[in-house]
Amino acid sequence: MTAQENNTPDTTTRSPATARSILKRGAIVAGAATLSIGLMAGLADNFLNTHGAANAQPVQLSGLQQTQLPSFADVVDRVKPAVVSVRVKAKVVASANDEDGPAGVEGLPPGHPLERFFRRFGEEGMGPRGPQQQQPRVQLSQGSGFFISQDGYVVTNNHVVANAAEVQLVTDAGKTLSAKVIGTDPRTDLALLKVNESGNYPFVQLATGKPRIGEWVLAVGNPFGLGGTVTAGIVSAQGRDIGSGPYDDFLQIDAAVNRGNSGGPTFNQKGEVIGVNTAIYSPSGGNVGIAFAIPAATVQSVVEQLKEHGSVARGFIGVQIQPVTAEVADAIGLKDAKGALIAEAQPNGPAAKAGLKRGDTILAVNGEKIADARELSRKIATFAPGAKTSLTIWRDGKEREVSFEVGRQPAA
Questions:
Q1: Active site residue 262
Q2: What's the pLDDT at 374?
Q3: Which of 44, 157, 177, 271 could cross-link to 263 by cystine, CB 3.0-4.6 Å?
Q4: C-alpha dihedral (325, 329, 335, 337), degrees to nearest 10
């Protein structure tokens, strides 16, 4: 099972054997239900014969009658107009092994069984026209997004608009708007769009604090092209690392999120965006109750830079780091297995210029303790290049303070 980006439609089928198994289980349940009904009817007749119909009293539910489930209706009314469906036309180059290839082969209808054979025949240079050059083709994709300002700025995922040649937004009211890509950040999978048509657009706010595990949340988006879909669940976990990059810090939610929900918002009960849905964990490509969202704090930081510069500049320390295990901590005299151990400092890099060297362990940045190497990378990345910081390091059995100037992270 893998974490999957969720911006393209997908279907899942069952085998006849599986279908028969399901039907058999249904028959067993139905038979059990019939038996239960018969028993209940017999007990009811016995009760009436003994006590008389006049003595029968309605069951009192007491406090259970007052129990109410949470309603998201008011929140949906406020936030739904700010959520849009994102439609993208992207130019991609078909490879020789691309089985989807160009749409159709001359003389054959699309989807014909021989179409793939003839396409491969031509690509291998054995056709009547000889070798064929790879030609760019148009790929259509769909995702979700949401307005963050009245003047038409929209947040979505980078993978939704990657290589976009044309972007259209469809509002909740059904209006289609053209938009342009202002900037993208592949490392966090975020993108900022701007509607070409001026106007006053409904928008939502990003939450300023982290949600608590167990809080009710609401996901709105365009799953499988079904725009304006609303699902509910809870925050399941925080700080998830799904292996998509060095800055993984995802919220895990159990609201139903599917392909096409990518770039859509997850709201708290105040109608604030706590995260941007970006991936699901699924064996089939469909919802199994595990989804991942980029936290609002990350979105805020990235969007500000994209709006101002069109790209994101991150701080850089210039070291190779590794975790501090219990064995390493014991060997260097650390009480707790925390921090980031420097395996190598790049020559002429920011760390080397600050006097850091192999074997040093970074414990804190500006007085804030570092749990592990991953947290160090994320924290340094939040600083602007050139910022002055203070690092607390462990060297030769004691703590030291080192002044440090953050470098600029290479583009690659």
A1: yes
A2: 84
A3: 157
A4: -20
Residue range 350-374: mean pLDDT, rounded: 91
Taking only the tens place, the pLDDT of each residue in 219-249 is 999 999 898 999 999 999 998 888 777 778 8
Q: For 296-352, where are the E strands, in sequence order?
A: 315-316, 319-323, 340-345
315-408 belongs to CATH 3.40.50.300 = no
- How do residues 111-169 score in pLDDT, each as one tens digit? 544 444 444 433 333 444 455 556 677 888 899 999 999 999 999 999 999 999 999 99
Question: Could you tell me the fold of the domain covering 216-309?
Answer: Thrombin, subunit H (2.40.10)
Q: Which among 85, 141, 189, 360 is annotated as catalytic?
A: 189
Greatest pairwise CA separation for the chain in angstroms = 96
Q: Active-site residue among 159, 244, 282, 377?
A: 159
Q: Where in the chain is the domain with CATH 2.30.42.10?
A: 315-408
Residue 224: left (phi > 0), alpha (psi -120 to 50), or beta? left
d(CA 402, CA 350): 12
